[in-house]
Every structure is written in C-alpha cells, then in structure tokens.
Amino acid sequence: MFDPRARQKSSRSEMQSLCLLGAILVMVFVIFVLPVRLDLSLFDGQCGQLNKLWQDKYQTEFDYSKAWNRAEFECPSIVSGLVRALQFLDGLDTEQTVGSKRKGDFYQRLKRQSPVLDHDLLFSRAGKTVFESRKIILNNLVLADNNPVRVAGILMHEMRHLEEGINTHVPCLRESSNSCDAVLLEKPQLGGAYNFNIHFLHLVRHYSNASDLQKRLARREMQAIFDTRFNQIPESAAAFYQLEIPQ
Ligand SMILES: [Zn+2]
Question: What pTM did the predictor assign?
C-alpha cells in the first residue's frame, strides 16, 4: 500500500545521506587535497610581464652564458623558470632587523657577486658553482618546474659559495657521494651554503612580504634540505627553524 508519509521520510533520509556524503567529500578535499596542491600556474598576462622584465631588466643586470635563449619565451619554460625566480628575489622584502625592511636585498647581493648564469642538463645536482669563471649553473629540470622559491633558494646557495670563495661542503655521513654541511647553525654567517639556503627560506617563510603560497613552498623546500643536507643538527637549530628532525 502506498504511504506518502513513509515515502517522504525515505526521501528525506536519502537527502540527508547525500548531504553527509557531500560534506565528507568537501572535508576530504580541504584536509588532503588543498594542502598538497601548490599551484604554480601564471595568471593571464603574467608571461608577458616576465618577458618584459627579461628584455628590459634582467638581461642587462646579469651576465649569461650562451645557453640562454634571449628571445621571447613561453611559460612555463626553462627561461621563465629563471625569470620568475629573479622577479621573486627582486620584489622580496625581508625584515632582517626589527623595523628595517630591505627590499630586493638578496637580489642586489646576487648582483654584487657578478655571476655568469648558466644552465645545463649534464649533471644531477640542482645547482653548481664554478669558482674560476664565476658561473652559477642551474639544472634544466629544476628550472622547467617553474618553482620561483626553489630556484631563488638555489641561486642564494650558489651566491653564498661565491661570497665564501671556497667550497665549504663535506661528504654526507649517510651517503658519502653527496655533499652536506657539517652542522646546521642558527647563525648562517658561520655555516655553509646549505645553512645559508635554510636561512634565506626561513626569512621568506617568517619575515617577508612573500605570498602564502610562496611561504608554503619555502617551508617544503626547507624541510627537503634539512632532511638530507646536514651531518649534524642540534635540537636548538631544529627548533629555531621550526623543522622536524629527520628519522
Ligand atoms: Zn653547494
């Protein structure tokens, strides 16, 4: 026998189940999908802006090897990977001392080292410094990823090598074919290039005008360097940089 009240009740409970399922799906998306999706795509017109900076500013302010295509580039590409990193450094404000903001300080610091920027596929490291020619060689695959924070961090690492004038790395205790810094220090001026890399990303993350996305990229990059590139990590340094000690 047809019972309209029973029918109404069952369709109400179907509706409630659907709403519950929808809510669960939204929660899963917010908790698991959003945090790992770090979107590096450009907004409309941004590739044109980057091309303009490449032509009008960055090509004249730095020296480049012949490996670079100086003409108009597409996004994403190897060239846009570098230009995005230079733009990020150029616009970065970091509050290194209380109350004093130094816009573009890291960009100027890189410029002062007069590096010859190069890129190459023939080595597996993310970056490499050749002291005699002042070359900073960047890995093509890393550039092609177009992560401006990561590439900027690598530029700062290699810049630190040029500032120090010697290779301060030591073989990693875990894997001696890799290079590490002996110890992570809270005072980056005393440490090696990985230490400086961590310090730079720490400033981006906590004391800069970087966007939320850029700060999350900095956090992720810090942990990756932290996990593999130090032979010794004092607990106080891990706490200072707010990172989890690798197992
Ligand atoms: Zn290095």
Answer: 0.82
